[in-house]
Design a protein that fits this description.
- The structure is a single chain.
- By secondary structure, the chain is mainly α.
- 71% of the residues lie in helices and 0% in strands.
- It contains eight helices and no strands.
- The chain is globular, with a radius of gyration of 22 Å.
- It starts with a helix and ends with a helix.
- Residues 9-21 have low confidence and may be disordered.
């Protein structure tokens, strides 16, 4: 009996001691960490552009992508603002994106959503990518595109793209009977951002 117990202890301690060699990233070079994080961000961008490829990828959340996208959008809108309004525009975009994401996330959680707070903020932040692309395109093509209806159509397509991508991840994380209550504030959130892009001159 004593021999049997000693064998069990040896087996347990042996199993605990053996760890995979590649699970720890504490000793890896900083360049490897940056490359890995950059690759993860680019993969998330791709999954926003093609929303139905894999709905599980954005659950591995990070806030680097949303931060970069928010800064990009704020800088784009700031550059076209009047000189005395540049600071207000930049801080206003930051407030709208992050406060809006927070409110939507809390709403989703209160309605029974299964995603964590940061997972939801991650999804909402990444899904403003189509609106930023539309802003960049309209900037580059502004010399050739002067008709307002074309801006409406192009930004409207980007708005639908952003809503489709985000709701595809968030609406499935809550009870089906409450999905409309989850989707409604998401639509309003992206409409506000679309209006900022549409009014960018």
């Amino acid at each position: 009996l004593i021999h049997s117990k000693m064998t069990d202890v040896e087996q347990i301690s042996g199993n605990i001691a053996v760890l995979p060699q590649d699970t720890s990233t504490l000793d890896e070079p900083v360049s490897h960490t940056i490359k890995r994080d950059a690759k993860a961000v680019m993969e998330k961008f791709l999954h926003v552009l093609i929303p139905r490829r894999n709905r599980l990828l954005l659950k591995d959340w990070d806030l680097w992508g949303p931060l970069v996208l928010t800064v990009t959008l704020a800088m784009l809108l700031r550059s076209s603002a009047q000189e005395d309004q540049k600071t207000e525009v930049f801080s206003g975009v930051f407030f709208i994106v992050w406060a809006g994401s927070t409110v939507i996330t809390l709403n989703t959680k209160l309605l029974g959503g299964t995603l964590s707070f940061f997972q939801s903020v991650c999804v909402l932040g990444y899904c403003i990518l189509p609106l930023i692309l539309s802003c960049l395109f309209l900037r580059l093509a502004s010399f050739a595109i002067t008709r307002l209806w074309f801006r409406f159509v192009f930004v409207g397509l980007a708005l639908g793209w952003a809503i489709f991508a985000s709701t595809g991840f968030l609406s499935t994380s809550c009870p089906q009977s409450r999905r409309a209550l989850v989707v409604y504030p998401i639509v309003l959130f992206y409409i506000v951002i679309s209006w900022l892009v549409l009014n960018d001159s």
